Amino acid sequence: MFAIIGIVVVFVAVVGGYMLEHGNLHVLFQPIELLIIGGAAAGAFLIASPKKVVGMTAGSIGKIFGGSPGKDSFLELLVLLNKIFSKIRKEGLVSIEQDVENPKDSPLFAASPNFMKDHHAVSFLCDNLRVIMTTNISPHELEAVMDVEIEGHHKEAMIPSEAIARVADGMPALGIVAAVLGVVITMGKISEPPAVLGHSIGAALVGTFLGVLLSYGFIGPIATNLAFKVSESAVSYDVVKVALVAFVGGSAPQIAVEFGRRAVPSGERPKFEEMDAALRAK
Fold first, then answer.
1. pTM as predicted
2. Residue 188: φ, ψ to 5°
3. What's the domain range around 78?
C-alpha cells in the first residue's frame, strides 16, 4: 500500500511541480526516449542476469505491494513452536515424525496458516527438526548448521534486490545515451528555425530527465524495498533458530519459546502477557 502511495507522490510532485511552473506537459511526453531507455535497461538486465535471476526478480516484484509480518504472525509461530516442543516433551521425538514429514496435513501446522504460506520457513523448521530427531546434535552444532542455512538463504533472497539496484545505477547513463541520440537528430535540423531546434533539444534533454527520475524515483526505491522485505522475512528464521537451540539445550517448552519471542523486533514482538494468554488458550 505504501509503495503505491510513494509512486503516486513521486509522480505528482515531479509532474505537478513542472506544471505549476507553466511547463509544457507535451514536451515531457517522449515515448521514443522512454523506449530507448527502457529497452536498453531491459536488454542490459538480460545480458547481466542468468535465467534463474530473471525468474527470481520477476517473481519478487509483487512483494513490494505486500504487507510485512506483524505481531499476530509471530504470535502464531511462537504458539506453533510451543505445541511442537510440548508434544516432544510429553510423547518423545517420534511423535512429531508424521508432522514433520507432511506439514501440510499436520494438525499442528494447520493452526498456523500464515506461517505455512512461507514455504522456505516451513522447510527450514522441518529440516532442523529432522536433524534433531535423527542425530544426537549438540546445541552449538545445531546453531552453526542453522546459521549456515540462514546465511545462504539471505544471500539468495537478496539477488533480486541487488539485480534491480544495478539496473537503477545504470539508468542515468542510459538517459544520457537517449539525450545524445536526440542531440544527434537535432544537429541534422541545424537549418531549421530556432523554435524547431528548441523543441528538438528539449525533447533530447527529456532523456536525461527520465533516466535520473526512473533511477532515483522508482527503480532504486523498489530495490531498497525488496531488501527490507528480505530482512523482515529473516526474523522468522531467527525466531525458529533461537527457540530450537534453547529447547535442545534443555529449556522447557515455554522457556524456549520465550527465547524465540525475544528474537522478534520490539515493534512486532508480542507482549509477555499476550504470549502467555495465547499459550494458555492453545
1. 0.83
2. -75, -10
3. 32-282
